[in-house]
Structure formats: structure tokens, C-alpha cells
Write a structure and sequence with these properties.
Largest sheet of chain A: 6 strands, antiparallel
Helix content of chain B: over 70%
Radius of gyration of chain B: 18 Å
Shape of chain B: globular
Helix content of chain A: 10-25%
Strand content of chain B: under 5%
Structural class of chain B: mainly alpha
Radius of gyration of chain A: 20 Å
Largest sheet of chain B: none
Number of strands of chain B: 0
Strand order of the largest sheet of chain A: 1-6-5-4-3-2
Oligomer: heterodimer
Strand content of chain A: 25-35%
Number of helices of chain B: 9
Chain lengths: 309, 192
């Protein structure tokens, strides 16, 4: 490789840094195994890059069922809205889903299904009928499947014709919080063109009182999501979505009912949420330097919202 | 020349799978440097690389029953986990940071030597420049470059962990080289 593109030489980790990192890790894994609800909800995931043949995407802009040869964005809310390109991405995801042998009870705890991108994640087996949202920008598709018990997310990177696509798979096979939402909205799949944002494709769930959902990019722009049957999907175009980006929910009277940072996702919500039975479905975010409380007080939590399709 | 590690990774990982925290510590000692440098080359920031490194080892602990060791080495799997973690860093770093139990730092007593600090800043500037070019590559090619060229993971081992053929991986790297060479050539012409 040209020297210009060679990275700097490797460095040693300073001994005291190694000691601290090691101590933090050991302290973390040694703590009593009170499995946090937060950890039971896998977000996006992980990677099972699989080699297959790619397909040339062709079509004309603006026509149902066809795509332009240049840049385009598509959002389909379910299997009945699929264009040929999205259909192809769905087939690819179903193929990867079927190839994975880990539809096992290993995730019966709901838990470590796809934390942070480990190879070998587990998720539910899905069919095309389970497709909730399919979003695609150019050669990258992000799909969300919802089953009776869990969910499955899939990203496909098609690349150029004749080249093997890559992808990322994730999900939870048995999802204890399936019937409840931490407030009006919850994203489950988030992909981005850059490590720190750029254009994003987001999909997830909404409660019945959400009639409009807007992503404010944080760069002055915004994108309105498509909503259908308790789910949403959106794809930005030419945006610089950043860490200040917020998902803003509106009710039928156009009143703003919720505003939350996109990057907080389902893992790190500012508040805890509790269902009517008093079950906390999402504990609150814990700051870097704050102690980890054993259990948040139910009285401090906001009401969870029921999710139905 | 081959190097045999003692205890071998396979043995360490077996102990790890049984919940042996000492084995986890040994694995960290063995590969933290490699993972940290790999993470830096993906994100261009030493501090973010530290987060990614810790996240990688936390994932290793949580997924200890499922890791795929290639030719008895845990390193390719760890580097792929680090790659995936770096990819989602902007949305996941906070959750990992929140997860970690922080240990008080003794900043005053062990300040970094000035030349070390300067060296690291230089690294970050240099890496930012490299990444600005490499980011134009398709993600799969970018990650193949980081894994095989920068971190020196053998093609066969990287391909096995990625779940693709060695030919496909070599092809990605080859395409990346060609693109970068073209870019270098174009940039040079523009400068002249």
C-alpha cells in the first residue's frame, strides 16, 4: 500500500492505563449477576458477513416497483410495499437468517443476543411476512422483522454488481418487553454511513398516540418518518445526522409529545419506564461516574406505553 | 517461525467459557495492545480506541461460549468484534461506558510524559489524514484493509472469522489497494 495510507506505528498501552482498563473490566464482570433489563434488549447488531452474489440494481426514478440508477431512498412498511430492489434485500436477509443455526434457546433469557457486534449472535427465525420495515439508500438496506416473540434486524451492503454483499444481523429471540414501549417511540435498528452519523436509516416501534414522527438531524435539517401499524421507518438523504439528533413525536393534534436523543436508543434512556403492573421495562441511564443503583424507584419512572400492531 | 503461546488461547478460552476470570485477565494482557491499536486505526482517536477495546473484551466475556477461534487463536475474533464495535461506536460507546465500573484514576501522580502526549497527538493527526482517504472506500473494503493490512491478520484467519471466502477477502483488499493507488495518483497530479 502506498506509504501515504499507512497508519502510524503501533504504540504500547501505558502500563497504568492497562492496569486501570483491566481493573475496570474485571470489576465489571465480577459484579453480581443482576441482569439488567437494558441488557436484555439487543439493539442493532452484529456481524455475520456472508459471501453471496450481488445483483445489479436498475430502474427508473419515481415509478412504483422500480428504482433509479442513481441515488435513491426507499421505505416500505411491510411486505406488500416491496419494490424489486427491496425484495432482493429481503430475500438476502431471509437467506442469512436461515443460514444461521443459532435459533436456539440460548437467547431464551432474551439477553446476550447481539451485544456490541459479536459474531455468532442469535435471533428468531423469520419469514417475509414478519417484515415490518424495509429501508434502503442506494446500495445499503436496513430491515426490521417483528415476530410474535422477538425481532430481527438486518443490514445489507450490496456494493457493486457481481460483488459479494456484506451485512449485519441482530435481534432478540425472546423479548420480554415486546408488549411495552419506553414512552411513545423506540428505535430498534439504526445504521449510518459514517462512524459518527452522516446519513442514517432508522426503524422501530411507536405507540398508538404517535401520529407524526420527525428526526431532527442536529444539522438544521429534518426527516419525517413513515408510520404504519405500530412501526416507523425513515431514511435521510444528504444529511449530517449527529449526536444532537432527536426523534420528535407528535400526537393527532400536532402537539409534541416526546423528544429524545436518537443515539440514546433503547439502551440509554434518560428516564426509566414502568408498565401498569409496576414492572420496570427500562432502567434509567447511569452516567459514567455515577454509582449503579441496585434498582430504580418505580415512582421515579415514567409510564411505559403499550405497543400493539 | 511460529510462536507458541502459553497457555495456548484454546486453553485460555476453555477456561474463560467456564467463567474463569483469571483466564479473562490473561487474555486481556495478551491482546489488549493489539486490539487497542486496531481500534485506533479504525477510529483515529486513542481515547475512543480505549472505549472500543474495553467494549471488545466485555463482548468477549459475554459471548465466551460462542467465539470462533481460528487455528487456535482468539485474536482474529477479537479484532472482528473490535471492528464491529467501532462501526457502531457512536451509538454504543455510551452504553459501554455506563456499563463499566470505573476505577479512580491517579492522574496527578502519573501524568503522561510530554513527548508521549505529543506523539499521540501526531498519531491522531496522521490517522485522520489516512482515514479521510480510506473512508471513501466501501465499508467492507475499509475493514478488510484494517484487519489484514494494518493489523496483519492472515487472510485465511480473517476470512474464517468474517464468514467469507479467502478469495473474496483478498479481492476486497486488492480493490482497496487499487482505489487508493488511483486516489494517490490523482491527488499527486492535482498538486502538480
Amino acid at each position: 500500500m502506498t506509504e501515504l495510507f499507512d497508519p502510524p506505528p503501533e504504540r504500547d498501552l501505558p502500563a497504568r492505563q492497562v492496569t486501570r482498563m483491566r481493573a475496570e473490566l474485571l470489576s465489571t464482570i465480577s459484579r453480581p449477576q443482576r441482569r439488567s433489563t437494558r441488557l436484555r434488549v439487543a439493539v442493532v447488531a452484529a456481524t455475520a458477513v456472508v459471501a453471496v452474489s450481488a445483483v445489479l440494481l436498475v430502474g427508473r426514478p419515481g415509478l412504483p416497483g422500480a428504482e433509479p440508477s442513481g441515488g435513491f431512498e426507499l421505505v416500505a412498511m411491510g411486505p406488500t410495499e416491496l419494490s424489486p430492489t427491496l425484495h432482493r434485500s429481503v430475500e438476502q436477509c431471509l437467506d442469512w437468517n436461515a443460514q444461521e443455526s443459532l435459533h436456539t434457546e440460548s437467547s431464551a433469557e432474551g439477553g446476550d443476543a447481539s451485544e456490541g457486534g459479536a459474531p455468532g449472535a442469535s435471533w428468531p427465525a423469520v419469514t417475509a411476512d414478519d417484515l415490518a420495515v424495509a429501508a434502503q439508500r442506494d446500495d445499503t438496506a436496513a430491515l426490521l422483522f417483528l415476530t410474535e416473540a422477538g425481532y430481527f434486524t438486518c443490514e445489507v451492503f450490496w456494493g457493486r454488481a457481481g460483488r459479494a454483499p456484506g451485512g449485519g444481523l441482530g435481534g432478540v429471540a425472546h423479548w420480554s418487553q415486546r408488549d411495552w414501549l419506553p414512552g411513545p417511540v423506540q428505535w430498534l435498528s439504526l445504521s449510518s454511513t459514517e462512524a459518527d452519523g452522516g446519513d442514517v436509516a432508522v426503524s422501530g416501534r411507536i405507540s398508538a398516540r404517535v401520529h407524526r414522527l420527525v428526526l431532527e438531524h442536529g444539522d438544521g435539517g429534518s426527516t419525517t418518518a413513515r408510520l404504519a401499524s405500530g412501526v416507523f421507518g425513515l431514511v435521510t438523504k444528504g444529511a449530517e445526522v449527529n449526536r444532537n439528533a432527536e426523534l420528535v413525536s407528535y400526537d393527532a393534534d400536532r402537539n409534541e409529545i416526546d423528544r429524545r436523543l436518537l443515539v440514546d436508543g433503547v439502551w440509554e434512556l434518560e428516564h426509566c419506564y414502568v408498565d401498569p403492573s409496576g414492572q420496570i421495562i427500562n432502567p434509567p441511564m447511569v452516567g459514567e461516574d455515577e454509582p449503579h443503583p441496585e434498582s430504580p424507584l418505580v415512582a421515579d419512572c415514567r409510564p411505559a406505553e403499550r405497543w400493539t400492531r | 517461525m511460529t510462536t507458541r503461546l502459553h497457555p495456548p488461547d484454546q486453553e485460555l478460552w476453555s477456561a474463560l467459557a467456564g467463567g474463569d476470570e483469571a483466564a479473562f485477565g490473561q487474555l486481556f494482557d495478551r491482546y489488549a495492545r493489539a486490539v487497542h491499536n486496531h481500534a485506533f486505526r479504525l477510529c483515529g482517536s486513542w481515547s475512543v480506541a480505549e472505549d472500543i477495546t474495553q467494549a471488545t473484551f466485555l463482548v468477549a466475556w459475554r459471548r465466551r461460549g460462542e467465539a470462533r477461534l481460528v487455528d487456535g487463536s482468539a485474536l482474529p475474533w477479537l479484532l472482528v468484534v473490535a471492528t464491529n464495535t467501532a462501526r457502531t461506536e457512536w451509538r454504543s460507546a455510551r452504553r459501554w461506558r455506563a456499563l463499566l465500573r470505573r476505577v479512580p484514576q491517579e492522574r496527578e501522580a502519573h501524568a503522561d510524559p510530554a513527548d508521549e502526549v505529543v506523539g499521540r497527538l501526531d498519531d491522531e493527526r496522521r490517522m485522520a489524514s489516512v482515514l479521510s482517504a480510506v473512508r471513501r472506500l466501501p465499508r467492507a473494503e475499509r475493514e478488510a484493509v484494517a484487519l489484514c493490512l494494518w493489523s496483519g491478520v492472515p487472510y485465511a484467519e480473517a476470512a474464517a472469522v468474517l464468514g467469507i471466502s479467502e478469495v473474496a477477502l483478498r479481492s476486497r483488499v486488492s480493490r482497496a489497494r487499487a482505489r487508493l493507488a488511483r486516489k494517490f495518483s490523482t491527488d499527486n497530479r492535482q498538486e502538480q
